[in-house]
Amino acid sequence: MTEARSSTRPSVIDARGLSLTFTTADGPVHALSNVDLTIEKGDFVSFIGPSGCGKTTLLRVIADLERQTAGTITVNGTSPEKARLDRAYGYVFQAPALYPWRSIASNVALPLEIMGLPKAERLRRVQKNLALVNLAGFEKKFPWQLSGGMQQRASIARALAVEPDLLLMDEPFGALDEIVRDHLNEQLLQLWAKTEKTVVFVTHSIPEAVYLSTKIVVMSPRPGRIHDIVESDLPRGPRPLDIRETPEFLKIAHRVREGLRAGHSYAD
Amino acid sequence: MRTEAIAPLRAAHRPHAVSRWVAESAVPVLAVVGAILVVWMVATYVLNVTVQRDALDRAGTPYTAGELFLATYTMERPILPSPHQVAQELWKTTVGTPITSKRSLVYHGWITLSSTLVGFGIGTLLGIGLAVLIVHSRTLDKSLMPWIVSSQTIPILAIAPMIVVVANALGVTGLLPKAFISTYLSFFPVAVGMVTGLRSPDRLHLDLMRTYTATSSQVFWKLRLPAAVPFLFTSMKVGIAASLVGAIVAELPTGAVAGLGARLLAGSYYGQTVQIWSALFAAALMAAVLVAIVGMLDRIVRQRMGIRS
Amino acid sequence: MNALLAPLRGGGVLPFLAIVAIFLAFPLPGDATSLGLSPVALGGLTASVVVAAALFLRRADALAIGLGLVASFAGAALLIDDLPDGPLPAGSPGMGQGFWFALVAVWLLAWTTVDRIAGLSPRHPVARRAADLAIPILFGVWLLILWEVLVRGLGVPSVLLPAPSAIGAKLAAETATLWADFRQTFLKSVLVGWALGCGSGFLVALLVDRVPFLKRGLLPVGNLVSALPIVGIAPIMVMWFGFDWPSKAAVVVIMTFFPMLVNTLAGLDAAGRMERDLMRTYAAGHGQELLKLRLPAAMPFVFNALKINSTLALIGAIVAEFFGTPIVGMGFRISTEVGRMAIDMVWAEIAVAALAGSLFYGAIGLVERLVTFWHPSMRR
Lengths: 268, 309, 380
Description:
The complex is a heterotrimer. By secondary structure, chain A is α/β, with parallel strands linked by helices. Chain A has helices at about 55-60, 80-85, 105-115, 120-130, 150-160, 180-195, 205-210, 245-265; strands spanning about 10-25, 25-40, 45-50, 70-75, 90, 165-170, 200-205, 215-220, 225-230. In chain A, the strands form 2 sheets. Chain A has a 6-stranded mixed beta sheet with strand order 5-6-7-3-8-9, with helices on both faces. In chain A, strands 2-1-4 form a 3-stranded antiparallel beta sheet. In chain A, a hairpin with a 4-residue loop joins β8 (about 215-220) and β9. The relative contact order of chain A is 0.18. Chain C has 2 domains: about 1-155, no CATH class; about 170-370, Orthogonal Bundle (MetI-like fold), CATH 1.10.3720.10. Classes of the chains: A alpha/beta, B mainly alpha, C mainly alpha.
């Protein structure tokens, strides 16, 4: 049930006994309870689970958008706050969150402006990353002139432009239709293989999690906790989309589904 | 997933609603009001001290700095009256004077209030009626609506005195000319707000009514009108405030002898600053109460309709 | 309601009524005073109204609309020409019934024309914009025509309501006075007061935004004050700042300050949660977040306040002049001319105020279009 192979790669994220409790009118809500998790460099880790299992909260704690109430967590060996101030990660939200008054190019340049990079460097990175997500030629368009899938790709380019080693993605394709989603999944995997980044990916789709990940963290709600961690033995690197019909894939998907079922009672 | 992060913030209002309200609204508001009073008190001294010193010098009797300080707060015609002078005057002219007297602020307030309310009532009904016509007639929508919208950019209030004078020339005096101005001023916001409101149901809801083959009057009563209610109350709040301003301005340069506007004008003629300020506060209080009443109606209707604000 | 609106929409009734009305306009035998048109003019008018209306009964194409426009305007011109030049003599019954029937016929034709233009909904964007512009303009022109004809035809005394032509004549004759008033009231009191009031409201909002306690206290107070009859402060400002324009500008400053404060504060909170989180992930400082996220997001609110305030400023300046002013200014002119019963001059002044107000508002709207082009309400 725990990590099958011990690795020599350095750990990027290390959480021990992590808990987060919100106080609300209806009493405390245990969004995270006693979470232990190690994510190693170069991993593609998915958090999967039903609503309220704390997967987004866990990602937000890693990003220092939320603070734990107990336990410890390090990102790149330091506190999440230090990591955030070092701009150690890129974050992709559920929605594109592009600023409508900025063109696509200047949206991608936004974090670079804040970091104070010189103009030439900004231009170089914008071009490079827009090309990476197949959006070259759309620099001058405004977000609301593009489709939802293109907007989300632009927001991924924006996260990549920071050139972080760690990419945090919170259900980035949740609002897209399945065809666009498949396509972006494939592109994301190619990108990951090319850049050797560490990716933490929140989803509630089993095929998406299994297709993308090297490691799948199955979470369950009330209190939010880790139920199972599934190591994938599918080949690392780019995977063809039809890998999803192979017995190996289905085996992993089955284990994830079993984990979700066991961790979640449908009574409530 | 985002809801789990937001939920505690939103839910937080419930547990100790009263103590929360005190901490989050009442205390800051009282602090701001208190700060305004302090600034006012300081300004009273600063603005009045020169005049008062001159007056005391002329009187010839020696005085101390303390006496000068106190005297600036009790002048008969101060540049800026102190808060307690205004409060005293308000008390004296409301509670301390019989309401039939020409010196009673209740009497003057009632004159202004009655034309405000009559005008507001007519204006609201007219505005709703016109909005209904506009929503149902394409030609009216295209021809009249641009004028209604652009008429809001015109300082309509400037014609208030003229209307009163013309009406007086025709022998129409008293409440009606002023009410007419209030009508005019409240009519536009209500018409514009209602047109927006009656158009606010989205495509899906309208399509749903189409699948029921609802007649356009059924669509109106069951969908458009309920959807327009929040817009109606928002514009009524604007409308009633505008009505009051209209009634007051209508009382200004026309030789009107009664009403809050007339009190303002009389005060400015005779340099009775305390009177001006108390009339001003009475008007402000009236505006606040009127807007609050509309706001309360809004909340009651929303609760009845099951809309959570 | 449906039954009531059906003829307005159905379309056939209005041109039919126009035809009926134009025949009712014919003078009865022995009643020569009814309509002063020559037989040729009456015949031509009748023919064109009948042809245009009949055409509308069948179709609504460019030919029908063009004919409708020409016939209705030519008819209006004939009728206005038929009006007596001077005021109607006392005790005169006014124009005869033939005149009014002709007017009704011409007006019904005009209304049908406007109705048909509204029903065109052309495909080409330029044509559509032209139609959207033409309809309210036609409506406005007809409002003026009816105003002119009713005032002169019914012999309404000019003390009560002058005809548009009289107001126009006054506008042309008193240009110098009107310009002086405009300069005093608009260029000095309104513009200076508006700029100072909006500017200070905006700056104070930026400061208050940094102190949550102050913000929670000021927002309700600011909202309340925005609804108060602040113009009433004018006599006090006149006492403090004197008769000339600075006292008017002071009233305008106070009137425009709170709407700007409240709107800017609301606007600074308008940026979404996700957009703010994004800034946090970039470890952006307060200034960067303000400049790159919250100010741009606040712009629609700021422009809303600028537009509201443009109207408030004009009202404030004019009303404040009722309380004392040097012998120039739009408010001064309105109140003195009202006293002298020179209502046409008052209307001329109001026309200037209306024009200035709309142009001011329109100019702000144009800048708004450039700045907040991205806002859903501005996208085309």
